[in-house]
Amino acid sequence: MPKTSLSEAVHRLMHAYRHLLREGIQTEGIDLPVTHIRTLKGVCHDPGCTAQSIAQRMQRDKAQITRALNDLIGLGLVVREDNPRDRRSQLLRPTASGLVTMAQLDRAEEQAVQQLTQHLNASELASFIEMSNLMANAIERPDCQ
User: pTM above 0.70?
Assistant: First the structure.
């Protein structure tokens, strides 16, 4: 019988990961709120996206994402460009500074993952990823159970 319940284990893991990630972000000298970080990641991982597509992917209100984007644009991390296919929307892309910040975020994430997985072998890590994806997919697509 496990010492902790699944919910407690997931809760502890989530908080440990967030703690390590916050430490890494602080170490990298990034001073952005979580929503801004997630929004920047969305722009960097999908250059040419729109505010609407980021809001849908993050499951957030478009106005909230627009505020974060305006701040990121003000900081010189993201730029807007006219959308040649739809004049009602604008395409987003990271600036050189935005890409530098994204590289810092990637380092912080990698360090957190390294710390969390340091006692796992490749097979254990692969099993964990597979099981985590199965559980997440059951929530995202309940009809696929």
Answer: yes
